[in-house]
Amino acid sequence: MELYFSTGLAGKLKRKVDTMLEKVFKLSENKTTVKTEVVAGLTTFMTMAYIIALNPNLLTGFGAAGQDLWNGVFLATCIASAIGTFCMAFLANKPFAMAPGMGLNSFFAVVVGNIVAMTGMTYVASFQAALVIILLEGIVFVVLSIFNVREKIVEAIPLGIRLGISPAIGLMLMNIGLGSNVGVYAEGNGFTTPFYVMRDFFGALTPSYLQNNMGDTGFATMILTVVTMFVGLFVILAMSKKGIKGSVLYGMLVASVIYWIGSFAFLHTNPFASLATASFLPPFADMAKVTLFKFNFAGFMEIGWFTAITLIITFCIIDMFDTIGTLVGTASRAGMVDEKGDMPNMKEALLSDAIGTIAGACTGTSTITTFIESAAGVEAGGRTGLTSLVTGVLFLLCMFISPIAALIPAPATSSALVFVGMLMMGSLKDVDYGDVAGVLPVVLMLVFMMVTSSVGNGIGIGLITYSVLKICTGKAKEVSWLTIVLAVLFILKFFIVF
């Protein structure tokens, strides 16, 4: 009787939850289910979980600035990513996740170092001064988003360039997956410089040459990395071909198991050893001490108004176009755009980005932006904000289980990135190859995004090329004034030294 009652109660509760989720996220309208969205959210999280440890490493010189700052940035990464992603879920109802942007966090670290050199302040004090820049950037973006300025900027990007954004991002994802995402440190160079799969493994003259440079352990690690990556990729491809939902997630899990077994068998290391000494209690005290609302306005004033304004504008430009590019490219891949290439609820999505950035500044991290890895969740079937909600919850949970999340090896993540990147290349078929002014910007975008690892820089060179070609071919009237303004701004960014 009790079992029957419990089962009945559980059934009623499930129906109520399903009804609520349907009402909030419009699952039926978007042709998706709760299960699909949960799997998609988990997939997105697993492909971008690396940011949880990588971001505090980059912003603190891999802990050189002190453990308390590292801990504060770690928690800020989890909390700000969750806040931004929740905003994306409930304001825009889109399956996009947010976190401290790669490239932007590296730039932030450079800025902190420059402030140290300019003012003589400590790294922590300079870090807190740089957080003021991020706060002001976020406030500017909120204003621009509310008044639809950022949305107008999206509309100013020509359709041809928008069609090229998704493939360009795809090529960049594959480059990250096959290149920089799986660097292996080896005794051959004193564990200082990483060897990379594409550059060093496949680029080596002979395997013996690479082994001599890396050392036996380093070479074995590289072999395991390559095998893991491609096995994971083949599993994803096979399962996707059979129409299995969540193929990306399952492929990553298979790849992770292979890497763990290989670590035991060939590297004679325990991949779970870190769990023995790991702490599962969030270091809130450190966060409150050094990063939570720790804005150093006095230090910010010391860098000078001209420098400060220049830095704010630079952060704004990079963030704006990284976010726009990711949203447009990923939405195009998911079929979330109309016949003009516009994405519904773009204003809300951009506002989510702005709120996330303010949250990042207040908690203690660099600019929050929409992550390219969201494409993995979209490919897994994610179509609504429920995907984002799941990802955001997992970010919060990581405050307690970060040691477990850190166990997912980079090669497993690379499998997903390569697969998703390959799929995103499909939009190239829609490019008008009969129009030079339309083709050349796309080609340059493909190269620039891959080489610079920046969506914004890729769009910038596309806009410049498009505008110049149209003007030089007597078709200046086809270019909107806002497109020309954006092109000029990127020219200033690329060539003017302040």
List the helices and strands and how they pair.
Layout: H1 2-25, H2 34-48, H3 51-59, H4 67-92, E1 98-100, H5 104-119, H6 123-146, H7 149-156, H8 159-178, H9 197-201, H10 207-214, H11 216-241, H12 247-265, H13 284-290, H14 297-302, H15 305-333, H16 346-363, E2 368-370, H17 374-379, H18 385-405, H19 410-424, H20 436-452, H21 455-472, H22 481-495
Antiparallel strand pairs: 1-2
At a glance:
71% of the residues lie in helices and 1% in strands. The chain is an all-alpha fold and 498 residues long. It has a two-stranded antiparallel ribbon with strand order 1-2.
Describe this structure as you would to a colleague.
The chain is mostly helical. The chain has one domain (30-495). The chain is built from 22 helices and two strands. It has a two-stranded antiparallel sheet with strand order 1-2. It is globular, with a radius of gyration of 23 Å.
Count of individual beta strands: 2
The SS-based structural class is mainly alpha
Strand residue content: under 5%
Report mean pLDDT, rounded to a whole number. Answer: 84
The tally of helices reads 22
Instruction: State Rg.
Output: 23 Å
User: What is the number of domains?
Assistant: 1
